[in-house]
Amino acid sequence: MNKYILVLSLFIGAFSSCKKTGYDPVKQAATDDAAIQAYIKANNITAVKDPSGLYYQVITPGTGSYPNVNSLITGAYSGKLLNGTVFDSGPINNTALSGYIKGWQIGVPHINTGGRILLLIPSALGYGNAANGGIPANSVLIFTIDLTGFSN
């Protein structure tokens, strides 16, 4: 009888270890996209969806050339979660765009000097499935960014 219990326990243990748990990036992307679309609708935002999954609204385009991922940018920003909680804001002082999250690297080049943009960033282009300070894991991030200047 003990042999049967042991074999049954091993069998159950083997199959339970195969159970899929944890982070599913495809499912998370779909969840983020649905949440962003609901936010856009609820707030009457006209946004463009980038192939990366990022949504953006150019509020003020600015003038001149566009920055790129290697540009040093200057300006100001405010970041919040979908529930309205502001998690950060402040100046941008001649900082490499490449040092920011992927969502910024994709979104900021859509405006010129003097421009303002709203970025709705799915979690994969932000901090992913890791918490960061006051930002929970798998959070959609919303940034308003004013670009006052840049250099290449």
Give your account of this protein's structure.
- The chain is an alpha+beta fold.
- The protein has one domain: Chitinase A, domain 3 (Roll).
- Helices cover 26% and strands 31% of the residues.
- It contains three helices and six strands, in the order ααββββαββ.
- It has a six-stranded antiparallel β-sheet with strand order 1-2-5-6-3-4.
- β3 and β4 form a beta hairpin.
- It is globular.
- The N terminus is likely disordered.
Overview features:
152 residues; Chitinase A, domain 3; 26% helix; six-stranded antiparallel beta sheet; disordered N terminus; alpha+beta; 6 strands; 3 helices; single chain
Terminal CA distance reads: 76 Å
The structural class is alpha+beta
The total of helices stands at 3
Q: Give the number of domains.
A: 1
Low-pLDDT sequence parts: 1-20
CATH class: Alpha Beta
Topology-level CATH name: Chitinase A, domain 3
Oligomeric state, counting identical vs distinct chains: single chain
CATH architecture: Roll
The number of E-state strands comes to 6
Integer-rounded radius of gyration: 21 Å
How much helix, percentage-wise, in residues? 25-40%
User: How would the global form be characterised?
Assistant: globular
In what order do the strands lie side by side in the largest sheet?
1-2-5-6-3-4
Strand content: 25-35%
What does the average pLDDT come to? 89
- Most strands sheet: 6 strands, antiparallel
In N-to-C order, the SSE pattern is HHEEEEHEE
